[in-house]
Amino acid sequence: MGITTNICTVLENSQIASGIYNLTVKTHQSADAKPGQFVNIYCEGKTLRRPISICEIDKNLQTLRFVYQVKGEGTKWLSRVQAGQSLDILGPLGHGFNVSKARKVVFVGGGIGAPPLLETAKQCNFIPDAILGFKSKDFAILIDDFKKYCENVQVSTDDGSLGYHGLVTELLKERLQSDCDLVCACGPKPMLKAVAKIAEERGVECQVSLEERMGCGLGACLVCVCKVKSGEGGFRYAQVCRYGPVINSKEVVW
Amino acid sequence: MADLSVNIAGVRFKNPVVTASGTFGFGREFSQVYDLSKLGGIACKGITLKPRDGNPPPRIAETPSGILNSVGLQNPGVDWFVKHEVPWLKKYDTVIIANVAGNEIADYCEVVERLNESQVDMIELNISCPNVKQGGVAFGTSAKAAGEITKAVRNVCKKPLAVKLSPNVANIGDIAAAVESEGADAVSLINTITGMRIDINTRRPILTNNTGGLSGPAVFPIAVRMVYEVSRRVTIPVIGMGGIATWQDAVEIMLAGACLVQVGTANFTDPYAPLKIIEGIEQYLDQNVISSVTEIVGKVQIYE
Ligand SMILES: Cc1cc2nc3c(=O)[nH]c(=O)nc-3n(C[C@H](O)[C@H](O)[C@H](O)COP(=O)(O)OP(=O)(O)OC[C@H]3O[C@@H](n4cnc5c(N)ncnc54)[C@H](O)[C@@H]3O)c2cc1C
Ligand SMILES: Cc1cc2nc3c(=O)[nH]c(=O)nc-3n(C[C@H](O)[C@H](O)[C@H](O)COP(=O)(O)O)c2cc1C
Ligand code: FES
After folding, report:
1. Is pLDDT at B207 greater than 70 in this prediction?
2. Is some CB atom of chain A closer than 8 A to the CB atom of B207?
3. Taking residues B155-160, what's their average pLDDT?
């Protein structure tokens, strides 16, 4: 089937934390979806679709799960959509995480960066670990979900209201003292940069999921670019929507 | 069944819907979504003599009913285009329009000479890109400069030549008349309208280029007016674009004088938009017992 738009039925759209919603839709697009890919959701009255990562894929039930945070008008509209209504979804888009060769993966999720890591955790060959960081307890999401698929799930919050009081990077430094051959990270750019640096210093491969403002979502319009290394000391602009959103950290020009 | 085909400067389009330059790349990505042979044509991403990196991101900002973009002509250069993109696109039964940009007249001429030997069907001269520092829109904002560049390119161009006009001008009719008199086979309009958005919290423009080009439904009424004005000033065909999102929009801009329409930003809202527009035009013609789409061109009944 490849990439299609589909008018799919919303099965669930409910708040799971402060301003954060869980959305499940019924769609045949689940058949082709891979972990770490995303979709572009049409929001009524908006010229641009909103990119949202795939959080879980159920090929048997033909469903996709998303977890999103209300930021502006588009996601606010989305949060008002009720079960039973339909949504216009373009996807699956982009390239996700590649965990097929890894023995021990450590996932690092910052805030609303956690969702795309969940399906990836499910598809690891060996049981992975996860480090999840949130602003505070009120914004914590998916901890129990990760516990289903991970051996150790460590949680940190900026204010200490849940788990470790501090940053995920501090937990990661400690975690990388022991066995790990791949770090997969998604979250705010400064966090990704710090995570990549720690992993690279330990000689551990690191894949990061990037965000950029998008137009077509397919790779054609070149608005969503990020700088990646090219040639000797040079760079080129690659489309986050097609070349990414997941890119090996060594390629990124931060 | 109405005849949807249109002829412009000896080039036959099977239907009047073409995807607009810069929103559709060279077709590869959208070919994963549908069969490109369904399109009347594809206006490729703007190409220059040498590859260009374009501007730093963010390159897009949403606006009420539209977007601002500041891509800045990122492209792999004409040689890559001729060698890799044109032969690939040729697999499809659709018109290939090469969109040409540059810093100086000599660059434009050089690009066009290299395209002469390729299989592109038509050339669209982009003298209206607002997102590059040199050249681009500078050629499109005075009738004299627009005429000069058209003349120089016409001299070397062996393909049908359309000139793409900027809306960022006082009198677009004068510019259209100037390029017609220097030998353009068609004019296409409108390119984007220069705009700006600022984040009130950071006090920074949303686009790293500070300003960008406005497109999408927000510009549609301006496009209709400009197509109307230009079609009254020139006898060459007018290719209309700017905010076309539905078949009704396409019919409207054709009534204003466009022989052919291009669909740009609407591809982002709905990748199938061009196909839905083709279907809608056909149904409109059939329902109104109009045998050819060419019969509605310029048929607005204006108030005297
Ligand atoms: C590949 C990818 C995956 C994503 N996955 C998720 C996810 O799983 N859950 C989640 O909550 N959010 C995710 N985001 C971020 C989400 O796309 C934005 O929060 C959302 O587009 C904001 O839309 P809005 O209308 O609410 O906000 P507004 O600020 O009103 O949006 C204005 C414009 O800016 C764009 N925009 C604003 N913030 C972002 C951003 N951070 N990234 C890209 N575009 C942005 C919007 O798409 C829109 O075009 C993802 C972004 C990308 C690029
Ligand atoms: C992201 C983007 C890139 C564009 N790049 C080009 C370009 O390379 N050359 C060109 O002539 N026009 C370019 N345009 C302008 C469009 O072809 C079109 O003239 C304009 O967007 C108005 O049509 P629309 O409202 O349907 O998008 C670009 C527009 C967008 C949105
Ligand atoms: S959004 Fe169009 S290229 Fe990425």
Report:
1. yes
2. no
3. 98
| Cross-chain Cβ contact A47/B22 below 8 Å | no
**In a domain? residue B64:** no
pLDDT for the residue B138? 76
As for how many domains chain B has, the answer is 1
- Which atom of ligand 3 is found nearest the CA of B268? 2
Mean pLDDT of B173-182: 97
Ligand nearest to the CA of B69: 2
Give yes or no for A210 touching B (CB within 8 A).
Answer: no
Q: At what angle do helices B172-181 and B143-156 cross, to 10 degrees?
A: 30
- Domain CATH for B102: 3.20.20.70
- From the CA of A222, give the closest atom in ligand 2: 1
Is the model's pLDDT at B261 over the cut of 80? Answer: yes
> Is B129 assigned a catalytic role?
yes
> Considering the domain boundaries, does residue B68 fall inside one?
no
Q: What is the pLDDT of residue A2?
A: 87
Among protein residues, the one whose CA lies closest to atom 45 of ligand 1: A213
| Minimal-distance CA residue to ligand 1 atom 27 | A72
A125: nearest Cα among A95, A146, A104, A97:
A104
Residue B126 CA: nearest ligand 2 atom is: 11
Give the Å distance between the CA of B270 and the centre of ligand 1. Answer: 18
Contact check, Cβ <8 Å, A220/B23: yes
Q: What is the pLDDT along chain A (254 residues), one digit of tens a residue?
A: 689 999 999 999 999 999 999 999 999 999 999 999 999 999 999 999 999 999 999 999 999 999 999 999 999 999 999 999 999 999 999 999 999 999 999 999 999 999 999 999 999 999 999 999 999 999 999 999 999 999 999 999 999 999 999 999 999 999 999 899 999 999 999 999 999 999 999 999 999 999 999 999 999 999 999 999 998 889 999 999 999 999 999 999 99
pLDDT at B1: 86
| Candidate from B54, B67, B267 with C-beta closest to A222 | B54
Q: Is A243 on the interface with B (CB under 8 A)?
A: no
**Whole-number pLDDT of residue B134:** 59
Contacts of B69 in chain A (CB under 8 A): 215, 221, 223
Instruction: Find the CB nearest A47 among B30, B265, B272.
Output: B265
Contact A222 B60 (CB under 8 A): no
Catalogue all structural domains in chain A, each as residue range(s) with its CATH number: 4-93 (2.40.30.10), 97-209 (3.40.50.80), 212-254 (2.10.240)
Look up the domain containing B248 and give its range: 6-51+73-194+213-296
